[in-house]
Amino acid sequence: MVPVKSVMVPAEKIRKVDRDTTIKAAAEQLRDHNIGSLFITKGSEIIGILTDTDIVRRCVAGGLDPAKATVDQIMSAPVLMIDENKTLLDANDLMAQSHVRHLGVSRSGKLVGMLSVRDLVVFLTNLPRK
After folding, report:
1. What is the mean pLDDT of the chain?
2. Which sign, positive or negative, has the C-alpha torsion 87, 15, 112, 72?
3. CB–CB of 66/42 below 8 Å?
4. Which residue in 122, 125, 24, 128 sits closest to 69, CA to CA?
5. Helix axes 117-125, 88-98, angle to 10 degrees
6. Rounded distance between C-alpha atoms, residue 43 and residue 119, angstroms
7. Which of 6, 34, 63, 104 is within CB 3.0–4.6 Å of 79 for a Cys-Cys bond?
8. What is the pLDDT of residues 62-87, one digit of tens each?
């Protein structure tokens, strides 16, 4: 089976914003980069993840003003992690059990990448057909 590390987005390509960023500014980054999540930082430490779903459920449905509220008010924390050597099936199972669409990928406890449901779908779509 294929390991997570072969499909993940490497850490250096993951977009990050500071926890004091407004939700509006973060949503604009999601739109402009055609992505579904941002990692949230406090200094150099990753403290959470913000997804498009968080914006809809916690900001819009929660009645927050996205121009004033900050991402740390609605982010998901901590980031759910999976080891880079686990399989894509393991990742799929963890996402399904935890009801999440994004996982941090770790090596020796350190974040080295991210895996999303979209990454899994792209991988499966590119498999040879019988």
Report:
1. 95
2. negative
3. no
4. 24
5. 140
6. 28
7. 104
8. 999 999 999 999 999 999 999 999 99
Q: Which residues constitute the domain of residue 71? A: 4-125
Per-residue model confidence (pLDDT) at position 126: 84
pLDDT at position 49, please? 97
Q: What is the CATH number of the domain that holds 115?
A: 3.10.580.10
Torsion of CA 27, 36, 59, 71, to 10 degrees: -70
For residue 70, give both structure tokens: 């900050």
Residue 8 lies in a domain: yes
- Other C-beta atoms lying within 10 Å of the C-beta of residue 70: 19
- Alpha carbon dihedral 44, 14, 83, 2, in 10-degree steps, equals -170
Cα–Cα separations (whole angstroms), residue 1 to 90, 115, 121? 10, 16, 16
Please confirm whether the linkage preceding 78 is cis (ω < 30° from 0): yes
The pTM of this model reads 0.89
**Which among 2, 4, 1 has a CA at the least distance from the CA of 95?**
4
